[in-house]
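The data are quoted verbatim here:
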Amino acid sequence: MNLRELREAHEFETLSPVATKSAQTRGRKHETKKCDYRTDFQKDRDRITHCKAFRRLMHKTQVFISPEGDHYRTRLTHTLEVAQISRTAARALNLNEDLTEAIALGHDLGHTPFGHTGEDALNSLLAGGFRHNEHSVRVVETLENDGEGLNLTFEVTDGILNHRTANSPSTPEGRIVQLCDKIAYMNHDVDDAIRAKILGEDDLPRHISEVFGNTPGKRIDFLIRNLVEYSKDKPEISLSPDAAVILKDFRTFMFANVYANQLHQKERGKIKSMLRLMFEFYMENPGKLPPEIQAREYQNRADAVADYIAGMTDRFAQKRFREIFMPAAWEA
């Protein structure tokens, strides 16, 4: 037996009966030769971390647009935090850590520049709407690797597609990422909001702080412990009913006091206008799209423009906007 086969056998011996075993993957769209020392889920994780879309997350907004400080989260640091706490939960529940990590690392690959503001802008401009989870799947299936895609396993692609709250992942590992994504972003967004002086240290409602804790670390620790203790030896992965209710209150508070904050909304309006103008420009001037976009077959031009804009980083979008709409400096 090679190292991969030993690892696969070890999973059957040590993981929970409900864990997803790499040897039982539903496979890839295009079958490839097995690696001698990595399982299919390990291979997927590596493909994700080496792809260009993953590297671009470093320069994409999490919540705060163009922050001055160096300590605000980006889409990449958010992704790494989700991967870390998801893997902790998977290990505690004796589930497949490699699958969990691969899903977490890939879950936001299709996010637009400027976070959910960019997503909202494209959603309003496309006839069929735009959802970052669906675009993440498009990235891994079609756009990456010069149009070849990453050819990930069904389980990883399913977890990426279904990480949003309203969806239902097919694996317990996907459900872990779905919950840990929410746990991560609400807690680190509080931290960033305090840093940005949008919230004060004691602004979080008392019943949330009293149960979850008064720091991001304490709250994450409480929620992961709750998830693990409530889900242990059960077919479903979830928080306890009481914790789920308080987490919903937490989310409501964040939308009212951070995501809908007046100063934040002012910047959101600017970004939406900027992306709308760029979208209209490329719709009218398709020859200005990059050659790799023009070379692909599309049913309509809007999808090509959306692919291009969604793949931009914040700073690249700003650079393109200046090139298109701002007069160049004139020198004698």
Q: What stands out?
A: DSSP finds 16 helices and no strands in the chain. The radius of gyration is 21 Å.
